[in-house]
From TrEMBL:
GO molecular function: orotidine-5'-phosphate decarboxylase activity
Entries under SUPFAM superfamilies matching the protein: Ribulose-phoshate binding barrel (SSF51366)
Organism listed in the record: Roseburia hominis
UniProt-recorded name of the protein: Orotidine 5'-phosphate decarboxylase
Family membership noted in the UniProt record: Belongs to the OMP decarboxylase family. Type 1 subfamily.
Keywords per UniProt: Decarboxylase, Lyase, Pyrimidine biosynthesis
Length: 232
């Protein structure tokens, strides 16, 4: 898979997400299904969107004891998604268990990535509230190294950290980066943000973009603007 824009389809019903995706006549965007849509509609929504020809990042951010995560991943491995994720804070043991659970009998599996520090978390909150007494960049790099050592394919981080993650973990280690806004757009609850063009410059492999596309007056035009800036 090459550089791509993943649309975070944070809707709470099948009707809404299908109506949204049907606006795209000339392209088949890579779709992220997150907790809101999955909890509302269940696994069938994954099959439906896959059946429409979209690649799928199933973003359920698993974080639990290794055995529970392994068994949950074994269930998700039957869904034919392209990418799914866990929290790196669950430990290397949990990430390895996730990988084992996700790997099918024939050895195939979706890409598995780990969230480092959520892009909605500022360094100040991480240090003062979560009691992680380090600079946020160092924390993200440390979690990325743990993720690589556990054998996963990459991390979710801010585009601002993508270049450093590649420097530490290598160019092939994937950086999937939410926290993307147009230069003239609202930041909302995100804290560690940048533009699609800057994300490209910093070396992100995939940008994840939700509201700047889903809430745009013309979502297809907003998607194309992301692709133009990020993929070129
Ligand atoms: O794992 C994620 O996808 C994720 C990790 C993270 O650190 N930050 C983050 O925003 N996300 C997701 O990326 C999407 C960003 O959406 P917007 O802020 O609307 O562009 C949401 O669906 C989040 O759940």
């Amino acid at each position: 898979m090459g550089k791509d824009v993943i649309i975070a389809c944070d809707f709470n019903s099948k009707a809404e997400v299908i109506a949204f995706l049907e606006k795209f006549k000339d392209e088949k965007p890579f779709v992220k299904i997150g907790m809101e849509l999955f909890y509302a509609e269940g696994p069938d929504i994954v099959r439906t969107i896959k059946g429409m020809g979209h690649k799928i990042f199933l973003d359920l951010k698993l974080h639990d004891i290794p055995n529970t995560v392994k068994k949950a991943m074994a269930v998700l491995s039957g869904l034919d998604v392209d990418m799914c994720n866990v929290h790196a804070a669950g430990t290397k043991g949990m990430m390895q268990a996730a990988l084992e659970g996700l790997t099918r009998a024939d050895g195939s599996r979706p890409l598995l990535i780990a969230v480092t520090q959520l892009t909605s978390t500022s360094e100040e909150v991480m240090q003062q509230e979560l009691w992680i007494d380090k600079p946020i960049d160092e924390t993200v790099m440390h979690y990325a190294k743990n993720t690589m050592e556990a054998g996963l394919d990459g991390v979710v981080c801010s585009p601002l950290e993508a270049g450093k993650v590649h420097a530490v973990c290598g160019e092939k280690f994937l950086t999937i980066t939410p926290g993307v806004r147009f230069a003239d757009g609202d930041v909302g609850d995100q804290k560690r943000v940048t533009t699609p063009a800057k994300a490209k410059e910093l070396g992100s492999d995939y940008i994840v973009v939700g509201r700047p596309i889903t809430q745009a007056a013309d979502p297809v035009a907003a998607y194309r603007r992301c692709v133009e800036e990020f993929v070129g």
